[in-house]
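User: Is it possible to get a 3D structure for a protein together with its bound compound? The compound here is cytidine-5'-monophosphate. I've pasted both below.
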Amino acid sequence: MPRILITSGPTREYLDPVRFLTNGSSGRMGASLAEAVLAAGSVPVVVSGPVAVQYPVGAEVRPVQTTDEMLNACLELFPSCAGVIAAAAPCDYKPVQYSEQKLSKKNNGTDTSSFDFVHTPDILAVLGQIKQKHQWSIGFALETEYGKEHALEKLKRKNCDFIVLNEPAAVNSDVSSVQVFDKNGELRLSSQGGKQKLAERLLELTAAFQR
Ligand code: C5P
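Assistant: Yes, that's possible. Here is the predicted structure of the complex:
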């Protein structure tokens, strides 16, 4: 049975043992995609950041915390997969320094602290570089302006086959409004409504890669 890699949920970048950077990604899109992959007769291989959502029975789930961990898991699993759908919202920055001890307030909290951050790896872009001829990749682009333009720039830079353009309202929601573009900038799907329906329609689009 074909295996399909799905990245899902947020990642965490720790400043100290209890504090971290993250975002509001719920993993619902990843869970809906996993359901749709199973329904299409393939095996979902889900690399997921910390989420409350349940992935379906039958999905192979690899839990991770940081963007680096998500990348390493994807590098290990991608070669055995037909394609990847990158629905995760990985943290783009991580602190330069991690404090083994909990950072404590000094001077009754009147001190000012600053942190330096560096970029984390772009998982989808790395997978786009090592992608073989028989493999495909689909990315998401969440944009507030110049949607199509930004989405197509990301599709090109990350060497994707399709890009799913959505809006900030999709974060931590059951519904989403999306447009899917291919490499030629052609609109291949326009869908509004539940994430499950969207996941199924997205999966139908990947059927073309299987031929
Ligand atoms: O954050 P950005 O808009 O660049 O995300 C676009 C796509 O790239 C998404 O599919 C996201 O899952 C993926 N991505 C990634 N690794 C990152 C940042 C984004 O795989 N560090």
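The longest strand covers residues 175-182. The radius of gyration is 18 Å.
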